[in-house]
User: Fold these one by one.
Assistant:
Number 1:
Amino acid sequence: MRSGSLNSKSSTHGSGGANVKLVWLLLMIPVAYLVVSRSIAHLCEQRLYDGDRLEVRDCRECLGKGHDEKYARDFNGLGINCMACLGTGKIQVLVPGLQRPTQVWGAVIDWQAGESWTSHQCPKDVRLDLENSILLSTEEKSLRGALPGIGVWFKTDGGRVSAKTDRGGRFGCKLLPGRYVVEVEAEGFAKLQSTLEIEALRAPVWLEKNTILHGRSPEERKSKDGIAVIILLERSGEGSGMLRTFLLPE
Ligand SMILES: [Zn+2]
């Protein structure tokens, strides 16, 4: 009785609006699903380049046994799956080839406006994590003194790669191993020309399912490691600027 009266009320007053909302909601479900699944797929992507090899090796955390030895010792032989290999004892290892590029995260900065920049320090948020890139406003994302809309050229014998800084003054690109001449021109600033050496990745990349505690050498690279290229421009007539690189661990 009561629900009937409610239904009739809603059908006479707001059913058109409610239906439209419902249709929108139903339409948004597949869209949201697509966005979420695509971004997860993107995050999990382990792209292989020509010359890269995937190998399966014994897990270095549990030495191929599949269970956590320390846990087993502390709890009287009771086993728990190793978190690195999820109990399989095996880990996929990517052996990089010569065509594997290095990820570059960069920024072009007006050295004078960003006074706090010292050339020995890497700005800590030059690589924005996914969370911050979604949640922060453009203003909050900007690095101090960073210049938007600036073209950056990486020239090598094999051709050239270009990038442009976004509204927050950052840019990103992938560079193959080799020696590059980097050129940046911006109105009111001295042209910067510098060289950049990108070394081939040699260390195997262990694709563990979780962060491991043992067995990892400190200088080893991981799949999402890369370098930061910070370009400091000086006003025309004041100097020729500077390019600095920093290794960015995963
Ligand atoms: Zn393991």
Number 2:
Amino acid sequence: MFIFAPTKNNNMPYPYNPPDYFQIDELLSEEHKIVRSAIRDWVNRSVVPVIDQAAHEHKFHERFIKELGELGAFGPFIPTEYGGAGMDHIAYGVIMTELERGDSAIRSTASVHTSLVMYPIFTFGSEEQKRKYLPGLASGDLIGCFGLTEPNQGSDPGGMEAKIKDMGGHYLLNGAKMWITNSSIADIAVVWAKDENGIVRGMVVEKEWTGFSAPETHNKWSLRASVTGELVFDDVKVPKENVFPEIKGLKGPLMCLNSARYGIAWGAIGAAMDCYNTALQYSLERKQFNKPIAAFQLQQKKLAEIVTEITKAQLLAWRLGKLKNEGKATPAQISMAKCNNVEMALNVARESRQILGAMGITGDFPIMRHMMNLESVITYEGTHDIHLLITGSDITGIHAFE
Ligand SMILES: Cc1cc2nc3c(=O)[nH]c(=O)nc-3n(C[C@H](O)[C@H](O)[C@H](O)COP(=O)(O)OP(=O)(O)OC[C@H]3O[C@@H](n4cnc5c(N)ncnc54)[C@H](O)[C@@H]3O)c2cc1C
């Protein structure tokens, strides 16, 4: 793993001093801290100076892909023999926090690539598929996307209409996917479609194959520095060796989503910490009525509530990471953490924006960008409502969303 040397960055409105109110640092290993420091420095050096402009221009900087690969941010928990970093799930979480501090777009690229592309190839793929795709994905020579959502099927992927037909030597894939992160820049797509028996199957589709196109979706007000688009399959010939051999049914994509949701639970904390850091420092500098606004009780209440919520989210993520490392994290626990931590971050962004008054709406500070991004984060990988229903189902034994 190549790690960039620390550099000074003069483009941040304030130095980044994330809160650690309950000394969670003591719970991290030296390896976690080294990784965190490398990613934080990269974000300071490579993302912060360009991200506001990128969001204005609706532009994803493709150089990020190779740089993230060099940093070891792709597939950190994938074993080294397949090009990953062989680290634990807390390291993955720490990386997601640091990336989302830069922008949810960067974390989205890394978490889709890691949890929704590398994870299924590693977990469900044949040995040949792993050797063919994982090293290039880990290094950033290849970029991947994940096609589950369709124009007519979002929260209910079981109703998917994409289909494969067995033609003897290969399958024919037809259908369309929508709202796909990395779509038009991806070299490969992990795609889920039903076979002739209505069973969901997963496969790796390469961008050069005839009949496959990936138009970009424009005009988003959220995740503007991320590529989102469609995947269109018109009689695409998929060789049989590209279909995941064993996994069948919705369990496959849902296992991928669990991995991605876990990363989001950590990532959202980074966006919240960036908003809090900005609001705290601004409130100490900005004077009204001859005092810093931080001296007013109402502003202190806001800041105190924000740091409390961030601390609770940090502890939830850390405990979830321990459970994940031990193979004990349940899908319902992951749903609870994703649901809580993203809502927390969105509320923190809204409160922090108010502390900055009018300045809070400008691109001179990161808060409004985070706030708009988090509107996507609270919807994708399962909406906030669906995660509440997963928790509701887990605690009552009654499944309320079918
Ligand atoms: C920027 C972005 C990137 C994305 N990237 C990807 C990607 O890479 N790959 C991919 O496959 N998908 C991706 N998605 C899609 C995302 O996962 C879906 O948007 C999400 O699952 C919700 O589906 P939907 O938008 O169709 O909403 P719908 O399912 O139509 O839901 C609309 C509303 O109805 C509510 N609702 C639905 N069903 C119920 C119910 N049973 N009970 C109560 N309320 C309900 C929902 O909570 C929501 O509030 C992305 C989305 C965005 C915005």
